[in-house]
Design brief:
Structural class: alpha/beta
Distance between the termini: 12 Å
Bound molecules: 2-phosphoglycolic acid
CATH class: Alpha Beta
CATH superfamily: Aldolase class I
Helix content: 40-55%
Number of domains: 1
CATH architecture: Alpha-Beta Barrel
Largest sheet: 8 strands, parallel, barrel
Shape: globular
Number of helices: 11
Order of helices and strands: EHEHEHEHHEHHEHHEHEH
Length: 256
């Protein structure tokens, strides 16, 4: 059984006061969300503050990106080792905003995945098609290319630490959520690719999250799909009540 992962991507939001408040509210009620793994990914500058605020609550800490080098003259960048040092255990890589606003390629994402694993971080590797790609019937091909490119050279053993997130770009921050059929089709295809590239055991173990306008009112249906193993949540993760409601939907599915 794959434990659902409910991950909040705070993006470039919060300040020290609201980050502390959000983390505190989630920490207080985390115990309610049994049988799911909770994760928050604040901006790097608030990682330490959020870590301290979470204390011993059952909520993991993740970053939203990292650089692939370990140290040196890379002004403005943060290494995987630094993220581990400050208490992060996960890192989101290849988010669509990094691919499409910051121009990251599959090969950039791949270098980061390798570096994250070397640093002892669990990468959450994002893939997802643009609206025009979906409309042109190219979704499966785009996802396959991103999957192959972003995970090139990653061994079957290393895949035990990798999480995949399917986030249709047209559903991110738009309020337009993929239908259950659209989500399940891509997730099932990703699972097939894992089996083909590695083996059934890897395919069975790797968690595939859905992301893109996940809200309390659609979470139950999405999380109940056979190949959806959690959610990567942007907007709704900035409201403790919404984030926890989504987590509780995960608990209900896990316990059904
Ligand atoms: P959203 O963002 O929930 O605001 O659509 C999801 C994401 O970008 O991870």
């Amino acid at each position: 059984m794959r434990t659902p992962l409910i991950a909040g991507n705070w993006k470039m939001n919060t300040d020290s006061s609201t980050a502390r408040g959000l983390a505190a509210a989630i920490a207080t009620r985390a115990v309610e969300a049994a049988d799911v793994e909770l994760l928050v990914c604040p901006p790097d500058v608030y990682l330490a503050l959020v870590r301290d605020t979470l204390g011993n609550a059952r909520v993991g800490l993740g970053a939203q990106d990292m650089y692939h080098e370990t140290q040196g003259a890379f002004t403005g960048e943060t290494s995987g080792g630094m993220l581990r040092d400050i208490g992060a255990t996960y890192v989101i890589l290849g988010h669509s905003e990094r691919r499409h606003i910051l121009g990251e390629s599959d090969s950039d994402v791949n270098k980061k995945v390798v570096a994250a694993l070397t640093a002892g971080l669990k990468p959450i590797v994002c893939v997802g098609e643009l609206l025009e790609e979906r409309e042109a019937g190219r979704t499966a091909e785009v996802i396959r290319t991103q999957f192959e490119g972003s995970l090139a050279g990653i061994s079957a053993d290393a895949m035990a630490s990798v999480v995949i997130a399917y986030e249709p770009v047209w559903a991110i921050g738009t309020g337009k959520v993929a239908t259950p059929d659209q989500a399940e089709e891509v997730h099932a295809d990703l699972r097939k690719q894992l089996a083909a590239r590695y083996n059934d055991a890897v395919a069975d173990k790797v968690r595939i999250l859905y992301g893109g306008s996940v809200k309390p009112d659609n979470a139950g249906e999405l999380l109940g799909l056979p190949n959806v193993d959690g959610a990567l949540i942007g907007g709704a993760s900035l409201k403790a009540d919404d984030f926890l409601a989504i987590a509780l939907a995960g608990t209900a599915v896990a316990q059904a």
